[in-house]
Amino acid sequence: MDAETTDLMRASIRELLETHDGDIATKLEEFGFTEVLDEDPAMAIDLLFHEQGAAGKASSALDTVACAGQPSTASRRHVIHPFAAPAASTRRGTELQIDGVILSKSDGPAIVILEGGAVEIPAAEVNSGTSPVAGFDPAAALRRVHLTLAADTLTPIEGDWTDATSTLHRALASELVGNGHAMLTIAAEQITERTQFGRPIGANQSPRHRLAETYALLGGAAELVHAAWRSGTPWDARVAKTYAGYAAEATSRACLQVCGAIGLTTEHRLPIYAKRGRLLDALYGGWQQSIDALGGQLLADAAVPDAVRI
């Protein structure tokens, strides 16, 4: 994909995010995003989710990415994503225990991605086990799905789902980087415009140092996303998502501190991004949980995975 086409797509996505109040997933299909996704998935996914993170908007575009390249029947279903856990389902004998979230209201069937495959959850079961998620960030429109079903009654979904979770890790990492850059921009504007003792508070070293540190963290996270796309390995995808979650949380803390009390109010833009960042990090397991899992895998394997040239 050449630079001119990339810039045109970025402008179109930004305009869509700025002007459309609902879920942008359907609108993305209207202007040909799925075709670009087939042609250059790394560019398309990184661009879309970075811009979505920068806009602080929620959508079900993650479902579109999860089902990309699968049979057309899969693309018309929502995906049940794990929240604060690495997987949305657990096998207990002959039963499948499902506990996750869907990203928008749905009256139809849903998909659960398993190791090496996916199964369909019938609409009646999804509706009976679904409840709205309120509280921390109601604007996210999440709905929790909590079910226990007989595994042999579920219909497998055709297609190759081997890399689906890795693709979702990379998408969320890009969105977390975009989210962090948005918070950093807000904080930089705040310390430039706000004055104390006759000069901007950004003239003091402490706020500048805090924001510079987070800028470096976000830059490192972006490079890890690019490296994960080049290698295509599940390990690199999870590392990228884990580090991006850490970078976004560190950025949130720094920006909230330098913005002061106003940055904690609902009237300010910053809490929108801070809440959104926490939610994104929790999808497919938060960064702290992932660090423990990655460390445990390194100890068990007694080997370090091959490095990817950044």
Summarize the structure.
By secondary structure, this protein is α+β, with helices and mostly antiparallel strands. 54% of the residues lie in helices and 13% in strands.
Describe the structure.
This protein has 310 residues and is α+β, with helices and mostly antiparallel strands. It has three domains: 3-66; 76-156, Butyryl-CoA Dehydrogenase, subunit A, domain 2, CATH 2.40.110; 164-301, Butyryl-CoA Dehydrogenase, subunit A, domain 3 (Up-down Bundle), CATH 1.20.140. It has eleven helices and ten strands. It has a four-stranded mixed sheet. Helix 8 packs antiparallel against helix 9 and helix 9 packs antiparallel against helix 11 (287-301). The two termini are 20 Å apart. The mean pLDDT is 90.
The description of the largest β-sheet is: 4 strands, mixed
Order of helices and strands: HHHHHEEEEEHEEEHEEHHHH
CATH architectural type of the largest domain: Up-down Bundle
Strand order, sheet with most strands: 1-4-5-8
List keywords for this structure.
11 helices, 10 strands, globular, alpha+beta, Butyryl-CoA Dehydrogenase, subunit A, domain 2, four-stranded mixed beta sheet, Butyryl-CoA Dehydrogenase, subunit A, domain 3, four-stranded antiparallel beta sheet, 310 residues
Question: Topology of this protein?
Answer:
Layout: H1 3-19, H2 25-30, H3 33-39, H4 41-55, H5 61-66, E1 78-79, E2 89-92, E3 95-102, E4 110-114, E5 117-121, H6 123-128, E6 130-132, E7 143-150, E8 155-156, H7 164-193, E9 195-196, E10 199-200, H8 205-231, H9 234-259, H10 270-282, H11 287-301
Parallel strand pairs: 1-4
Antiparallel strand pairs: 2-3, 3-7, 4-5, 5-8, 6-7, 9-10
Helix pairs in contact: 1-4, 3-4, 4-7, 7-8, 7-9, 7-10, 8-9, 9-10, 9-11
